[in-house]
Amino acid sequence: MARAWHLRSRPSGTPTSDNFELKEIGLPELEEGMVRVRNLWLSVDPYMRGRMNDVKSYVAPFQIDAPLEGGAIGEVVESKAEAFAPGDLVQHMAGWRDEAVIDARTAQKLPNLGARPEQFLGVLGVTGITAYFGLLDAARAKQGDVVFVSAAAGAVGSVVVQVAKAKGLTVIGSAGGAEKCELVRSLGADGVIDYKAGPVLKGLAEAAPDGIDVYFDNVGGDHLDAAFAIARNNARFAICGMIEGYNQREPMAFRFIQRIIAARIALKGFIVFDYFPRMAEFYAEMAPWLADGTVKSRETVVEGLENTPDAFLGLFSGANTGKMLVRL
Amino acid sequence: MARAWHLRSRPSGTPTSDNFELKEIGLPELEEGMVRVRNLWLSVDPYMRGRMNDVKSYVAPFQIDAPLEGGAIGEVVESKAEAFAPGDLVQHMAGWRDEAVIDARTAQKLPNLGARPEQFLGVLGVTGITAYFGLLDAARAKQGDVVFVSAAAGAVGSVVVQVAKAKGLTVIGSAGGAEKCELVRSLGADGVIDYKAGPVLKGLAEAAPDGIDVYFDNVGGDHLDAAFAIARNNARFAICGMIEGYNQREPMAFRFIQRIIAARIALKGFIVFDYFPRMAEFYAEMAPWLADGTVKSRETVVEGLENTPDAFLGLFSGANTGKMLVRL
Fold first, then answer.
1. Out of A293, B76, B314, B320, which could bridge B300 as a Cys pair, Cβ 3.0 to 4.6 Å?
2. Which residue in the set B252, B261, B270 is minimally distant from A241, CB to CB?
């Protein structure tokens, strides 16, 4: 019998394991155009917190007592779809479960790029696309720029650091704690800020005495305010995530937001889906970087379907280095 | 003897008349390349508040016990500069005083556009340029857009409303009190919000039930937060001013700033100086609009050099409708 994590109740503030329930599910009959997939890897991502609220956004909210969804890599075990055969590795959105019967049109075969399958949930997947286009398109990072990235030891941030270095830019990353800071440095960052060791603004002002040209925001709050404070003229901010605000209902407060005007700062929010049509462009640059070691894939792996909520909850306490994955 | 308003002390919070002092000044000898100007009109503008703080910004701070500066229209009464003759009307930055001796290179003769001289401090000057390029360049307003503008009865806002209507856009303006709201409506606004009558977000959600595509921000604070809340996908915000924050040291708090991400909002701060090279483009469109009544010039006129600080202070209590001017 297949099992899937269900949303038992909507979290108020930070989610807890009580919000989740693992239940057996009946799978539909395999009909024409469908495939049966046994999942190998599940993705947990901060954006899923937003789907747990009952509000309209760019993806529909999760429903109470329905299986959760998310990126997953699985193996086709039975197929009634022409293009798929047993043994094919596919990427799809029926995550948070061990087995699924899905419309084959919602599954993509993993391209042959010489990468490990789980990397298509990370550096070669949504995580990598987010980092790549956020930095190069939303923030229009260019030669000579000083780039600041928050959550630089996290899934997206760790790729941003490496893409920026691959492009020859100066990069300052922030992370929480000595161990993560060391990782960020090992990725090539020119400067590292430990936000748990002191105020972000103080650390950033020291690491970037002449200011920053680009800020890649994964967290909002104090990091964003510090970026406002020391942005150079015509700085560009890619607003990718604001994880600090996902679990709290308090407004975010900014002391330096008025500098948007004097420094002519441009902020651009973006959603990774918008860049899916440009996947080929992304693969063409990222796959060789990964193959030659310019970009290294970082993952934190949690074992077993049972621990999926723990993996997800760990995102909000900084339990992960690089991409958080669940291996089944 | 010429007289000029000096900065007696730096305001902490909202300025008061105690921060200003009117003193006689000795004018320098008229040397080669200089003109003596008798001022006719003085401009007071919200951005001057920023110059009263001792912080580096896009213009240098005012100095204690030195004459204040600002836009002014004057008549040349004596000239040792080739291009200027007595009787010429010029625009220059030696405002806050009745007479000045200035380097002729810092004065511009008023172009012959059939306009009243004081309009070059308003709709044909910095005010108009700010409105025009903020709306059309920084916010990239385009056919079909729903535009929201705050301080819509103010100097810049009242021009934004009219330029947006001249371009065939839908415009919602906010202003404080019934009288100003009536003015905004008379400028052609499709919807008007009285921010003194209730929460901005409530008013905006009613006036723009399908959301907004453009927000022209003159105030920051609750208005900006309301714009975040109901922005449509790919909305563009021109960040021109945040007058709510100029006098307070409290951070601005935002409940809806995270919508930058889901709605892919782009914010762009700008400074009017950046558009000075495009003045010809501006005159070519604005002068005919003004001549044929498409755009009307709105001014609040305070009489006499003595009352210049009062005119300035009135900007922060909403004493002006349209451009605030001092007539000497």
1. B320
2. B261
Which residue ranges make up each domain of chain B? 2-122+298-327, 126-273
Percent of chain A residues topping a pLDDT of 90: 90
User: Any chain A CB within 8 A of the CB of B265?
Assistant: yes
Q: Are the CB atoms for A58 and B262 separated by under 8 Å?
A: yes
CATH code 3.30.1360.20 for B126-273:
no
CB of B234 within 8 Å of any CB in chain A? Answer: no
| Assigned superfamily of B2-122+298-327 | Medium-chain alcohol dehydrogenases, catalytic domain (3.90.180.10)
From A66's Cα to the closest Cα of chain B, the distance in A is 23
CB contact under 8 A, A258 and B220: yes
Specify the DSSP class assigned to residue A127. H
Interface probe for A, chosen from B260, B271, B273 (most Cβ of A below 10 Å), is: B260
Which residue shows structure tokens 């993806």?
A59
Superfamily classification of domain A2-122+297-327: Medium-chain alcohol dehydrogenases, catalytic domain (3.90.180.10)
What's A287-305 look like in SS3?
HHHHHCCCCCCCEEEEECH
Q: Based on the number of CB atoms within 10 Å of its own CB, is A80 exposed (0-12), middle (13-18) or buried (19 or more)?
A: middle
Name the DSSP letter for residue A110.
P
DSSP secondary structure code for residue A210 in this structure? T
Res. B60 pLDDT band, cuts 50 70 90: confident
Tell me, yes or no, if B270 comes closer than 8 A to chain A by beta carbon.
yes
Is B261–A251 a contact, with Cβ atoms under 8 angstroms apart?
Answer: no
Cβ-nearest to B239 among A254, A260, A271: A260
CB contact under 8 A, B265 and A267: yes
